[in-house]
Amino acid sequence: MRGLLADRVALVTGSARGIGRATALAMAEAGADVVVHYRRHRAEAEAVADTIRSRGRQALLVEADLEQESEVHRLFNRVQDAFGHLDILVANAAATAFRPLAELKPHHLERTYRLVVFSLVWAVQRAAPLMEGRQGRIITVSGHGSHFTLPLYATIGSAKSAVESLTRYLAYELGPRRITCNCIAPGVVDTDSARYYTAERWPSFAEAVARHTPLGRVATPEDVARVAVFLASDLAGFVTGQVIAVDGGLTLTSAPFEALPPPRPGSGTVPSSADRERRESPADPLPPAAQGWTKS
């Protein structure tokens, strides 16, 4: 992949850990300068930036709460001031509280959709002008739960379904501006998020998923990152509006999720690649284990 993204500028949201981290590093390895976005995990984000610089590329470290439109604007102001343009946007950040729909509070829906759906629109509105004349690439990240039902996954699953739909509409609208828009839909990926979600059940769950996956294992963050590099490169210049599964063939089979005892209702969120947020209404506190928010 070396040289595929030479001298391009990429912004990867939620790039402190997990899929975001792997994607930021893979794009730097392919020759891009990278904006490393994070929310709370500053030490991990700094480590990603240091690794990028050690590979001879520039890294810009930016903290931003993407649930807030003003923070999205501040992020892109930093990108514009530092580089003057943008070639690649990877919208990877996500967050939710895993609860049954019947128990959701308004802030659960609002926060999930603001981060996953609203922030994508805000980001594209700022990114597209910075991509003018540069054959821009917009890459979104969905997941298995956008098409398949998973325990306590309705809020984030429906938000990811919206992301896939928005990706198609963005491809249609931005095509005349020579900007491609594609979505990656990973299967089960071995990340801190997945291990937290399944807790002590992870080993047996991963084994069951591997048995039902034609390629015989769960995905790694690097599996997803390599596809992101491909979609960002000239090799994918005529690919747009697509949702690409990176799951080793898991979607071809009857997935074993029902065999896994579901998380307890209100058991919380997955602390993933960018941060954990604990900003719940004092008048409506969540159980202690439900207060963390995944921002990947």
How would you sum up the global shape?
globular
What is the tally of beta strands?
A: 7
- Named CATH topology: Rossmann fold
User: What do we call the CATH homologous superfamily?
Assistant: NAD(P)-binding Rossmann-like Domain
Strand content: 5-15%
Instruction: List the quaternary state of the chains.
Output: single chain
Provide a count of the helices. Answer: 8
Helix content: 25-40%
Number of domains: 1
Largest sheet: 7 strands, parallel
| Gyration radius over CA | 18 Å
Output mean pLDDT.
87
Cross-sheet strand order for the largest sheet: 3-2-1-4-5-6-7
How far from one another are the termini? 24 Å
Report the CATH C-level class: Alpha Beta
Structural class: alpha/beta
Stretches where pLDDT is under 50 for at least 5 consecutive residues are 264-296
**H-E string:** EHEHEHEHEHEHHHE
Task: Please give a handful of descriptors for the protein shown.
296 residues; alpha/beta; Rossmann fold; 8 helices; disordered C terminus
Explain this structure:
- The protein contains eight helices and seven strands, in the order βαβαβαβαβαβαααβ.
- Strand 4, helix 4 and strand 5 form a beta-alpha-beta unit.
- The protein has a single domain (9-290), classed as NAD(P)-binding Rossmann-like Domain (Rossmann fold).
- It has a seven-stranded parallel β-sheet with strand order 3-2-1-4-5-6-7, sandwiched between helices.
- It is globular.
- Helices cover 39% and strands 12% of the residues.
- The chain has 296 residues and is of the alpha/beta class.
